[in-house]
């Protein structure tokens, strides 16, 4: 999936019909997703109403895992917003 790295998930999980999507983002591009003082990731969360969690990584990690959880449309919207930020970085 382009600059967003490997993707996975997308299958419904749990009884609430929630969708989970995982995205691996290159470490050098994670700043574009987070934004200054977290403004970009906050905007993605607010706009899509999806739960977006950026996993911590070790000091030598080349990629960061982002886990998006929510309804299908919420997850899809957040995924494409994140992918766009990574592709533009």
Molecular structure report:
It is a single chain. The protein has helices spanning 30-34, 39-48, 72-88, and strands spanning 7-13, 18-26, 51-54, 63-70. With 89 residues, it is of the alpha+beta class. It has a single domain (2-70), classed as 2-Layer Sandwich (Ribosomal Protein S8, Chain: A, domain 1), CATH 3.30.1370. A 4-stranded antiparallel sheet has the order 1-2-4-3, covered by helices on one side. It is globular. The protein starts with 6 loop residues before the first strand and ends with a helix. 25% of the residues are buried. This is PAB1 binding protein.
Count of the domains: 1
Biggest sheet layout: 4 strands, antiparallel
Radius of gyration, CA atoms, in whole angstroms = 12 Å
SSE pattern:
EEHHEEH
Query: What is the average of the pLDDT values?
Result: 86
Key terms for this structure?
single chain; 89 residues; alpha+beta; Ribosomal Protein S8, Chain: A, domain 1; four-stranded antiparallel sheet; 3 helices; 4 strands; disordered N terminus; PAB1 binding protein
